[in-house]
Amino acid sequence: MLVGMLRARIAATAAYRAGSPRSTRELAEASAQTRPLGEIEAMIGIQSRHFSDPEDTVASQGAKAVQLALDKAGLAPRDVKRLILTNSTGFDMMCPATANAVCDILGMDGTCGCVDMNNACVGFLNGLDYAARLVHTGIAPVVVVSSEVGSKHIRPDDPRPYLIFADAAAAAVLTCPEPGSDVGFSATYFGNRGQYRESVVMRHACLTGQRETLQFLKSGKDIAKLAVLGLRQVADDVFAQSGLGWNDVDWIVPHQPNGTMLQDIAELFGIDQARMVPVVHFIGNVGSCSTAYGLAELYATRDVRPGQKVLLIGVGAGLSYGALLYHAG
């Protein structure tokens, strides 16, 4: 058994896309873009994404993803001991926690502790880290679910966020592994550079007196440089902890802010793209759900075998960054 391993098994994952698909052509026309469509698609690397219906909420989407994941794990909602809900844009309400609504929808009244968590695009990784620590101490099963309705916080007259953000939900169920097995998380690292927190923001309406919308306050090149800064630090630390390197990892699940940055990440670290599962081209940037959706897509479309290593890594507004190295079982 590996020393220092957080013993927790990813028993099941699931992803859910609400509403209807929206093409980049459709959004480019709505935002009165003058650039050719091919140039826009090449710049953002996104062809389609889903926008939720008006009646969809963070809670309703999250509950659907949780139910799908529990069904795969062979568990009932009332089996769950803890539920962690992540979101990047403020949930459905300020108080109480939206996680309570997810539990209520699923009939988990009085059976499950729950909490909301927001750390921008790194939130799902934070939730997974906390869930692994709970399971390691014997509190299981734990569900981590990310649900995003970014379409409600973008405007056609601000095309940079309008062309990339979208909606989705995804969940992971963590359970206790078999005794004596090397299944779990061998390294985790999280950090932040708060001085860069003004790069991507969504200010509270009580401060601005206006609708809450996502805004990019730095250039794309500057944001990309900050992303590289965070990814380098977190990757170096995780590999220092584990004694491994990029070539020792079987699967890599990165946050996917847009298609071009995903390509840049692969080139920066010399990653064989066959070890990655691109999803941004058909779901867009879905905030904290990006790594959650990527993990679900990995398990749905690839043969993840026991003993293989999966690196989940991301960077987001804050500037926040984090990674977990998982040994599959």
Which CATH class of the largest domain? Alpha Beta
Strand content: 15-25%
The major beta sheet can be summarized as: 5 strands, mixed
Q: Count every beta strand, where a strand is a DSSP E run of 2 or more residues.
A: 13
Q: Any guess at the CATH architecture of the largest domain? A: 3-Layer(aba) Sandwich
Number of helical regions: 11
Mean pLDDT: 91
- Output the helix-strand order: EEHHEHEHEHEHEEEHEHEHHHEE
How many structural domains does the protein architecture include?
Answer: 2
Describe the structure using short key phrases.
single chain, about 325 residues, alpha/beta, Peroxisomal Thiolase, Chain A, domain 1, 4-stranded mixed beta sheet
Write the layout of secondary structure elements.
Layout: E1 9-16, E2 20-23, H1 24-30, H2 37-44, E3 48-51, H3 58-73, E4 82-86, H4 98-105, E5 113-117, H5 123-136, E6 142-149, H6 159-162, E7 167-175, E8 184-192, E9 200-201, H7 205-208, E10 215-216, H8 220-242, E11 251-254, H9 259-269, H10 280-283, H11 289-301, E12 309-316, E13 320-327
Parallel strand pairs: 4-5, 4-6, 11-12
Antiparallel strand pairs: 1-7, 2-3, 6-7, 8-13, 9-10, 12-13
Helix pairs in contact: 3-4
